[in-house]
Amino acid sequence: MKINLIGADGTEQQLDAVEGWRVMEIIRDHGFPIIAECGGACACGTCQVEVDPTWQAKLHQPREDELDMLDQNYANEWSRLSCQLIFTPELDGLRLRISEVALADAA
Amino acid sequence: MAEETITTDVVVIGAGPVGLFAVFELGLLDMKVHLIDILDRPGGQCAELYPEKPIYDIPGLPLVTGQDLTDRLMEQAAPFNPQFHFNEQVEEVEKQPDGSWLVKTDGGLTFNAKVIVIAAGGGSFQPKRPPIPGIEDYEGKSVFYAVKKMENFRGKKVLISGGGDSALDWTINLQPIVKSMALIHRRDGFRAAPASVNEMKKLAAEDKLKFLLGQVTKLHGANGQLEGVTIQDNDKKEFELEVDTLLPFFGLTMKLGPIANWGLNLHENLIPVDVEKFETSTPGIFAVGDINTYPGKLKLILSGFHEVALMAQQAFRYVHPDAKLTFQYTTSSTSLQKKLGVN
Ligand SMILES: Cc1cc2nc3c(=O)[nH]c(=O)nc-3n(C[C@H](O)[C@H](O)[C@H](O)COP(=O)(O)OP(=O)(O)OC[C@H]3O[C@@H](n4cnc5c(N)ncnc54)[C@H](O)[C@@H]3O)c2cc1C
Ligand code: FES
Questions:
Q1: What residue numbers bound the domain in which A96 lies?
Q2: Predicted ipTM?
Q3: Which of B49, B131, B162 is the closest to A38 by Cβ?
C-alpha cells in the first residue's frame, strides 16, 4: 500500500503505508519535514497536508477539534491534519502534499 | 533608572508543570523562588495547548486534565509562597562578579538570583504569524497580535482575522470605538463562547461590523502602514478591503526565543545537561523538563518531576553553601511538615 506524496517541486514520491498508522507518522517516518509537535494530539496543527481533490470523498469528515486547529493554521479547502487520518486499505494511493504552512513550521 | 532589583534565591524561567514542581522541591530545601512566564497564567503546554484533554501517565493520578494538573501543582507549591511574574519574557541573563545572576525581562523587571532554573519547555509561547507575504514589514506598526491598549485603535479601520475567543472578544470590544470593523474567518464556525458569537452576529446584522468568510492573501500599503488587504473568499474570488489595521489571532506556538543568546551549549534547540544535577554547561544554571536533553531523555511531565528533585540538591549548595543537606521524607520529617504548613 502506498501514499503518493507530491513534493514542493511537483515531483511525486511513493511512500510505503501501513494500515492503522496515522498518515502523519508515515510521512514523518520517511524523513519528510513535518514536525508534528504535539505527536498527533490535534493540538499543534503542524502536520497539515493538502489532499488531492479526487481523494477527498474517501476521507472521513474532520471533527470539530480538527476544524478548530485548521482554523488556526491558515488551512484551505483541501487541508487536513495528517495526524487525524488513520491509514486504511481504502486509502491505498492517497495523493497529498505537505502544506506550505507546515513546511514553514518545519523550516 | 531601571526599577528596583528583586533579590531571590532562585529564578525559574517558565511556569509549566515542571517549573511549578520545581517550586515545591526547592521549597522543601529552603529556597525562595520567583517564576517568570510570557503567558498570562501558569501551566505551560498543559494550560495553553490541552487544558481539557486527559493525561493518563501521572503517577497516582489515573486521569487528570491539563488544567486540573496545573491547579493541583499550584496548590502543592502554595505553602512556599512562590512569586509569579506573568506576561514577561526573560531576555537576558548576566553573571555578576559575586557569582550570582542578573535576570532581565522585556517588561523591564530585573532579578538577582543565586541560581537560575530554565524550565522553558518548547520555548516561549508566541502568536502564530499568518503566512501572508511581507507581513513582517507591518508588524508593530499596523499589524498587531495582541491588544495592549484599546485606545490605540480608536478611529481606525480594523480587520480582525480568526475564529477563537480572542478574535471574537476584540471584534466586540473594539467595535464601539473604531471607524470600521470587519471580522474574517475561513468558515461560519467558531471556537469561542456561543454568547460572543451571537453578539458578533447581532452587530453584523445591524451593519455595525462586517463578517466575511475567506482569508487575507495580500497586504497593501507602504512603510509599514497598511492601506488595504486582498481577501480571497471561499469561492476563490478575490476582492479588496480598505483597512489600516490588521489583528490576526491564530493562537500560539512555541519558539526557543532569547534562550539561544545566553551563551549556553545548545543541541538542536535543546539544552544538554548532566543526569545527576541537571546542570547546563554554565555552573549555576540548570535546565529541567522539555527544554533539556540527555541520553534517554523522554519529554514527559514525569521525567521533569524527577529532574527537579535532583536539581534542587545541587541548587541548595549554591544557595546555602555552608548548610548541611540531610535527606528527609515528607511523611516523617517534622521540619519538612512545618514548611508545608501541615504540622
Ligand atoms: C497535546 C499534548 C499532550 C501531551 N500529553 C502528555 C501526557 O499525556 N503525558 C506527559 O507526561 N506529557 C504530555 N505532554 C507533554 C507535556 O505537556 C510536556 O512534557 C510538559 O508540558 C513540559 O513541561 P515544562 O514545564 O518543561 O514546559 P512547558 O509546559 O512547555 O512550559 C514552559 C513555559 O516556559 C515559558 N517560557 C519559555 N521561555 C521563556 C522565556 N524566555 N521567558 C518567559 N517564559 C518562557 C513558556 O511560555 C511556557 O509557558 C503533552 C503535550 C501536548 C502538546
Ligand atoms: S501532530 Fe499536532 S495536530 Fe497533528
A1: 2-106
A2: 0.83
A3: B49
Tell me yes or no: is domain B5-125+253-340 CATH 3.50.50.60.
yes
- Per the listing, cell 519535514 goes with A33
The answer to whether the Cβ–Cβ distance between A74 and B131 falls below 8 Å is: yes
User: Looking at the partner chain, which of A41, A74, A104 has a beta carbon nearest the beta carbon of B53?
Assistant: A41
- Count each helix (H run) and each strand (E run) in chain A, helices first: 3, 5
Strand partners, B117: B12, B286
CA distance B48 to B244: 31
Looking at residue A19, which CATH number applies to its domain?
3.10.20.30
How many domains is chain A partitioned into structurally? 1
| Residue pairs between chains A and B whose CB atoms are closer than 8 Å | 47
For B129-250, the fitting CATH number among 3.50.50.60, 3.10.129.10, 3.30.1950.10, 3.30.300.30 is 3.50.50.60
Selected for mutation to probe chain A from B237, B253, B256, B270 (highest A CB count within 10 Å) is B253
Tell me if chain A has a CB within 8 Å of the CB of B251.
yes
Report how far residue B315's alpha carbon sits from residue B313's, in angstroms, rounded to the nearest whole number. 6
Flag whether residue B127 sits within 8 Å of chain A, measured between CB atoms. Answer: no
Domain chopping of chain B, boundaries: 5-125+253-340, 129-250
Length, in residues, of chain B: 343
Q: Decide: B138 and B159 in contact? Cβ < 8 Å.
A: no
Are the beta carbons of B63 and B35 closer than 8 angstroms?
Answer: no
Residues B73-120 have pLDDT tens digits of 999 999 999 999 999 999 999 999 999 999 999 999 999 999 999 999
Q: What is the pLDDT of residues B123-182, one digit of tens each?
A: 999 999 999 999 999 999 999 999 989 999 999 999 999 999 999 999 999 999 999 999
How many CB atoms are closer than 10 A to CB B269? 13
